[in-house]
Structures are given as structure tokens and as C-alpha cells.
């Protein structure tokens, strides 16, 4: 950095809900060197967990949604009569897109522009993909402020998405797999990408958290085998696959409990309703437990015999994988994306064939049959996590990147 002035970093979080991305951002702003950087976090959503950010950094809520275009599109898709009139569905979708621009995008953009100017931001760090953060990236262009974009998912190639990927000054990819996808699908130059694994405050993880308390809260007997899928209830997180595996295991593991841990974003309420209906229709009520959002994740990990990540689309590097490994717990993940990059099958966890419920069920049963394997792989996973995911290392790498961009 030139000079000894404190640099103002404006963070913008526009994710679908309170999940791993915002948790990692909170770890980062909490550990920034305040003698070098001042932070202000802007979130498009609000609620008790978002408001807690104000205890760690500057925080401001700028609504990114005044009308729910996503729900409107969903309802439109369910209607049959517009499809009987040629071109009407396309026209209505275009009208919804323009309404989204006028009533959601434009107010957020103008408010953020004012905040960035008043804050005198030296750099804008967007915490999600470019498309949902195009307002922040355009603010950076308009005010000549460098921008860093944190890419946490597998990018999809389209004309609009390719354009948004030309906006950031630099990218942070959460895994080598995501970086490779960005280069191949969107032709992002390698020199514009830095791979930095997400960090967690390992020293704050309570390894002795009372897992039985989690079981008591959700009426899980202490002596039954409990397998948990942890993550927001959104379709690609694999809850449907988890239910399929439960059907295959119900007669193989006595007293089995399959626990779906996580909250539901507003956009996915109908998805949760569908899952609950399936549980009833397929008579899985005695096996499946929905916990909703849980704050004490250490109790969750220690309360489960096995933790599962079952994303049907390749996930960059989920917080669940990082935290579970750091806690030294038996972990099963899909053999693609960040999970396959981070876990070594049979050494630090077990990998199953993506989208294959029989393969997932087989690996769950493998842990159930071999208690020593569970202990050994959990121990190996913790050793690996301690060497890879320290928040101090994560923060240092990002601050070094800020320095190089701001010089």
C-alpha cells in the first residue's frame, strides 16, 4: 500500500439467504487489521443474524427487493392459460424483468452509489457472483473504485453472465475447481483469479459442544444412529437425494434418524413444503427430522454420527465441509466440486457418486458398520483442516490481495 492511510473496504452481500457465504464474510471482517482497513458491510437482506454484523464492523441494510419477482415468475410458470396464447408467456416474463430493473435493481443501485460515495470506499468487495452483484460492480465502474468479486459457485455461461464477469477488477475463487470453471466457461484470464480457501475461526470451535443437547431439542434418542444433511433448504443442496437414501436405509439401520438441518430462504418455501409432503406420502415420518435454522452448529456436528453434504450441482467449497472437518467429524460428500478437491476418499472422508442415492446410502452404511473408520477419518480430517482453513491465513491472503490492487 502507498502511504500509511487506512483504506475503506465496502463489502456487499446479496446472497439468497443467511448461509456459508455471509458466515465466511463475518469471519473476515472480524479479523481484518483495523490499523490498515476500515470495513462497511452492506446486505440486501435483514434479520437478527444480519444485524449482528454491526457488532463486528460497520453495517447497513439496503433492500434489494421491493417486489418479489421470483415468486411472480414461479406463479406465472404454474398458470396454464398464458401458455395457450402464443408469445404471451415470453411477453409477461419480459415485463417482470423490466419491473425487476425499475423497482428492485435501480433503487438498490442508487442507494449503494450514495453509500459508497459517502463512505469514500477505496475498494468494493462483493461476496457473491457478479450477476447478483452487478449493481455494486457498476458502482465501482462509475466511481472508478477497484472491485473484487468472491466467486463461490459454478458459473453458468450466458451472454449476460459473460458480460458481468468483465466488470470486476479481480476475482477470489474459493477452490481450484471453481477457478478452472471460470477460465474454461467464461474465459476469465488466469491472472485475474486468486484461489483463497474460505477461513473459519478454528480456535473458537467448541470441540466439546454438547451433541446430546441437540438431540434432546429434536427428540433424537442418544442411542440411535443419526445422519444429518446440513445446508439451506434449496433444491441443489440435495434434500431430495437425502430422502431417497433414507428409503434405502430404513430397513438396514435400526432406529435410523435422517436429519435435515437448515433454514429455508423465502424463495424456497414451496420447496420445503414439497419435501414435507414427500415425507408424509412415503411414510418417512419416523425417520426424517426437520430442524429449521440452527445457530449452535458445533452441537449439531457432535450430535450427529455422520454429516452429509449432498449437493447435486458441484459446490465450490461449502462451509459445512470446512467446519465438519475442523470438528473432526465423519463426513460424506459428493465426488465433484470443492468436496472432491478437499476430501480424500477413505482418508479424510467418504465420497459418493453425485446424484446417486444408492451410492450415498452405501457410504452411510459403511460408516455405520465400521465405527473405527469413523473415528480415524474424523481425526485425519481435523488435522487437514487445521493446516488449510485457518482464518488468520485466509485474512492475510485477502489483505495482501487488497494491498496489491490498491498500490
Descriptive notes:
The chain has 407 residues and is α/β, with parallel strands linked by helices. The protein folds into two domains: 7-68 and 101-199 and 390-406, Glycogen Phosphorylase B (Rossmann fold, 3-Layer(aba) Sandwich), CATH 3.40.50.2000; 202-388, Rossmann fold (3-Layer(aba) Sandwich). The protein is 45% helix and 14% strand. It is built from 16 helices and 13 strands. It has a seven-stranded parallel beta sheet, with helices on both faces. Helix 3 packs antiparallel against helix 4 (88-119) and helix 4 (88-119) crosses helix 5 (134-143). The model has no long low-confidence stretch (mean pLDDT 91).
Mean pLDDT: 91
Uncertain spans: none
Helix content: 40-55%
Oligomer: single chain
Which CATH architecture of the largest domain is right? 3-Layer(aba) Sandwich
- Supply the number of structural domains: 2
Going by CATH, the homologous superfamily of the largest domain would be Glycogen Phosphorylase B
Report the CATH topology name of the largest domain: Rossmann fold
Distance between the ends: 5 Å
- Helix/strand-derived class? alpha/beta
The profile of the biggest β sheet is:
7 strands, parallel
What is the CATH C-level name of the largest domain? Alpha Beta
Amino acid at each position: 500500500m502507498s502511504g500509511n492511510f487506512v483504506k475503506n473496504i465496502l463489502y456487499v452481500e446479496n446472497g439468497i439467504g443467511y448461509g456459508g457465504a455471509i458466515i465466511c464474510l463475518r469471519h473476515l471482517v472480524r479479523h481484518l487489521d483495523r490499523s490498515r482497513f476500515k470495513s462497511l458491510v452492506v446486505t440486501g437482506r435483514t434479520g437478527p443474524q444480519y444485524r449482528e454484523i454491526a457488532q463486528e464492523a460497520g453495517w447497513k441494510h439496503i433492500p434489494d427487493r421491493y417486489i418479489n419477482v421470483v415468486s411472480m415468475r414461479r406463479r406465472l410458470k404454474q398458470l396454464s392459460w398464458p401458455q395457450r396464447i402464443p408469445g404471451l408467456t415470453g411477453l409477461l416474463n419480459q415485463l417482470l424483468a423490466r419491473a425487476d430493473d425499475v423497482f428492485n435493481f435501480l433503487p438498490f443501485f442508487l442507494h449503494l452509489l450514495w453509500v459508497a460515495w459517502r463512505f469514500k470506499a477505496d475498494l468494493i468487495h462483493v461476496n457473491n457472483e457478479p450477476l447478483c452483484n452487478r449493481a455494486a460492480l457498476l458502482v465501482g465502474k462509475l466511481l472508478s473504485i477497484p472491485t473484487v468479486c468472491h466467486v463461490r459457485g459454478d458459473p453458468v455461461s450466458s451472454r449476460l453472465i459473460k458480460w458481468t464477469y468483465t466488470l470486476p477488477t479481480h476475482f477470489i475463487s474459493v477452490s481450484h475447481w471453481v477457478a478452472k470453471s471460470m477460465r474454461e466457461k467464461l474465459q476469465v484470464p488466469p491472472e485475474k483469479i486468486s484461489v483463497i480457501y474460505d477461513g473459519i475461526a478454528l480456535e473458537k470451535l467448541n470441540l466439546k459442544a454438547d451433541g446430546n443437547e441437540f438431540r434432546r431439542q429434536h427428540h433424537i434418542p442418544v442411542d440411535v444412529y443419526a445422519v444429518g444433511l446440513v445446508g439451506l433448504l434449496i433444491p441443489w443442496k440435495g434434500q431430495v437425494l437425502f430422502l431417497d437414501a433414507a428409503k434405502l436405509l430404513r430397513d438396514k439401520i435400526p432406529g435410523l434418524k435422517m436429519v435435515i438441518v437448515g433454514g429455508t430462504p423465502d424463495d424456497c418455501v414451496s420447496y420445503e413444503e414439497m419435501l414435507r409432503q414427500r415425507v408424509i406420502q412415503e411414510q418417512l415420518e419416523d425417520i426424517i427430522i426437520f430442524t429449521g435454522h440452527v445457530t449452535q452448529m458445533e452441537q449439531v456436528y457432535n450430535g450427529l454420527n455422520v454429516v452429509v453434504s449432498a449437493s447435486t450441482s458441484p459446490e465450490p467449497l461449502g462451509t459445512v465441509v470446512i467446519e465438519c472437518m475442523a470438528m473432526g467429524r465423519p463426513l460424506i460428500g459428493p465426488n465433484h466440486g470443492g468436496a472432491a478437491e478437499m476430501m480424500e476418499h477413505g482418508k479424510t472422508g467418504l465420497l459418493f457418486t453425485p446424484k446417486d442415492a444408492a451410492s450415498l446410502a452405501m457410504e452411510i452404511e459403511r460408516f455405520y458398520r465400521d465405527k473405527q473408520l469413523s473415528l480415524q477419518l474424523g481425526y485425519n480430517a481435523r488435522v487437514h483442516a487445521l493446516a488449510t482453513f485457518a482464518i488468520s491465513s485466509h485474512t492475510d491472503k485477502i489483505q495482501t490481495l487488497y494491498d496489491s490492487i490498491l498500490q
